[in-house]
Amino acid sequence: xxxxxxxAIGVGKTSLSRILAAHYAARLTCEVVEENPFLASFxxxxxxxxxxxxxxxxxxxxxxxxxxxxGELFHQDQIADYMFDKDFIFASMNLRDHEFSLYRExxxxxxxxxxxxxxVIYLRAETDLxxxxxxxxxxxxxxxxxxxxxxxxxxxYDEYFAGYNGNVLTLNAQEFDFVGNLADQAQIITLxxxxxxxxxxPHHQVVG
Length: 208
Fold this sequence. Notes:
By secondary structure, the chain is of the alpha/beta class. It has a single domain, classed as Rossmann fold (3-Layer(aba) Sandwich), CATH 3.40.50. Helix content is about 50%, strand content about 15%. The chain is built from 8 helices and 6 strands, in the order βαβααβααβααβαβ. A 6-stranded parallel beta sheet has the order 2-3-1-4-5-6, sandwiched between helices. Helix 4 packs antiparallel against helix 5. The longest helix has 24 residues, at about 45-70. The radius of gyration is 17 Å and the shape is globular. The mean pLDDT is about 85.
């Protein structure tokens, strides 16, 4: 079993992934954000540092997920707090013209070498909640993130999952307190169990 939790910045991907990994006694894979040496500069000057930040993330995430595709999935259930495709979502926002063309060529070469997830849990939230959670977790380079950028990112996520050819469970993060409420945790796990039963064919379920 391979489950991925996805959504915009600050929506609670890692928190929910940890809960699911504990429930299923699964191996947890978390994306590495702070190690990107271009990220802080990107938030200050997106046009100048967009290509560097995206290519670093692309290669870093590929290396991290490649191990799962080379055998680990056969030995232990896996939970990840991101999917490889997220990098393309960000790149489609942050890159233009020849930079995006070069990035897309790299992405298209790497993606077929990775195993697709059995289920993607897409967490959605309004921009105000995202900003609140970003402020609460206190990463310095995220604190001045424009609201318009988060709104655009959420729109890109919605568009991506509207056309996603796979098993997706969409949850409204504002309807579930999966960190502090055990009943909400149990409800989500029930929804996940149901969604996994339909994983043999593309299925989209929206809750909340």
